[in-house]
Amino acid sequence: MQQLRTAGPYILIVLIVFAVSAIGGSFTGGGMEWYRTLNLPSFTPPGSVIGIVWTVIYTLGAIAASLLWRSRASIPRFNLIITLLVINAVLNTLWSLVFFTLHLLGWAIIEMTVLNLTTLALIVLTWQHQRIAAILLLPYFAWVSFATYLAYTIWRLNG
Fold it and tell me: Which residue in 143, 138, 91 sits closest to 118, CA to CA?
């Protein structure tokens, strides 16, 4: 029973990351027919690459969250970081809804900008106390930055 109690938060982290991925993926999948009708820039990665990138990012995010949980006693703003992680997860899921389901390209760009700001805040807040977790979030920040530019370009091509 003690092992389950000790492992519980880590299992919860994995379940939350899986839920974010699954819910976002369902919004994305439901909008693929519409997405295929859009004019896309030449630098749009193939769907298979996007899937691999997100899988890596979600894995790195789960590891980062686990490291943060393990170091919670030594992190002064731990509750703020957890709050930002939850907000970030919600924003991550909402982006797929706004872009792929609601087709609100302009709002999706704004939403992605806020998503990226929360990611940057997480990196900054964790850097001093859990540098490995912060480094693991850097690919996420880079990818969302790229995806924001991609969405902006799609908006411009289809607006």
Answer: 91
Whether pLDDT at 4 is above 60: no
Report all structural domains of the chain as residue ranges with CATH numbers, in order of start: 2-158 (1.20.1260)
Q: What percent of the chain has pLDDT over 70?
A: 97
Q: Which residue has the tokens 């880590």?
A: 10
C-alpha distances out from residue 47 to 2, 25, 44, 52, 54, Å: 43, 12, 9, 9, 11
Residue 144 exposed, middle or buried by CB count within 10 Å (0-12, 13-18, 19+) = buried
Please name the amino acid found at residue 141.
F
